[in-house]
From TrEMBL:
SUPFAM superfamilies with a match to the protein in the record: beta-lactamase/transpeptidase-like (SSF56601)
Name listed for the protein in its UniProt record: Serine hydrolase
Low complexity bias: start-end ranges: 50-104
Transmembrane regions: 21-41
Stored InterPro entries: Beta-lactam/transpept-like (IPR012338), Beta-lactam_cat (IPR045155), Beta-lactam_class-A (IPR000871)
Region listing for Disordered, in residue ranges: 50-109
Domain of life the protein comes from: Bacteria
One Pfam family it belongs to: Beta-lactamase2
GO molecular-function terms, A-Z: hydrolase activity
Amino acid sequence: MWSRFAARPREGTDHRVRPRTAVICTVAGVLAVAGTTTLAVHGGSARASTSAAATGSGAGSAVAAPSPGSASPTPSATLSPTGAPSATVTATPSAPASTRPTDSGDGMDALKDAVARASGNASVSVVDLTTGASLDYGAAGHSFVTASIVKLDILATLLLQTQGQGGLSTSQRALATSMIENSDNDAANSLYLAIGAHSGLDAANKRFGLGSTQGGTDDYWGLTTTTAADQVKLLRQVFTGSSLLDAASREYVQGLLRQVETDQRWGVSAAATGDYQLKNGWLPRSATGLWVINSTGLVDHDGHQLLISVLSDGNLSESQGITLVESVAKAAAETVG
């Protein structure tokens, strides 16, 4: 029987563009785990590893230093549960009362409980494209390492840069397919260089309105930092007409996200009662043994089209992180949709 934790292709050790002449690299940074800050220096193979240090993914050896939204429609309600993460729930005036998220009820209680079970930090952002309702809940102001969900951002940036200039080349399309459908790191390395590395990513994200996302420097694309709210803004670029990407570019990306390989279809898909399109990221940190687990995409939930991003770090294991992300996604979808 297939296990989602056993056969996943490795994402790589450091999510870095790798020079052809080197196989060993190091990076120093600040790692925030459970409210403490630790200075750590890590080294790891620049190639995908099969060592016992990783299970179901690549052994993480890079550390990101924390780095430093859209207007909320009214009416709005702000939740500040004592000792719990902050939450903001909003709904457009045009949304029927029965579809508006509230600060009470089974859905919100389940979401609070799910986030409270995080061993590290967790955050979720949701927009219901059917009603206009939205929700943000979790670690306020915390910057999360993207791991491989940044591959969606890399592709969106490449498409933005090439629109009106003939589009992607045949080789770039092949790389994009591998990068999104298989989460292939070598393909991401090539395309990250093609967009101009972190400077190209940052320039595109500024245009996309991602004010809390910063590209990983020194070619460590997997150490890009972001927030759940910014990732939903990126999803708007991919899935709505309010986008800098033209219809052909959006359709192209959506087609790839529909075909993510089977053992990478966990995450926000747990909130789907119908179709879904997603990109996941998973990365263990060698200094701590803790995992980054992220998932972002569009799901059909009871006839509602939801853009949803769940980010987490400090997970004790890959399986625990996936369980956390899925429980948060399901509870958030019930609250909003």
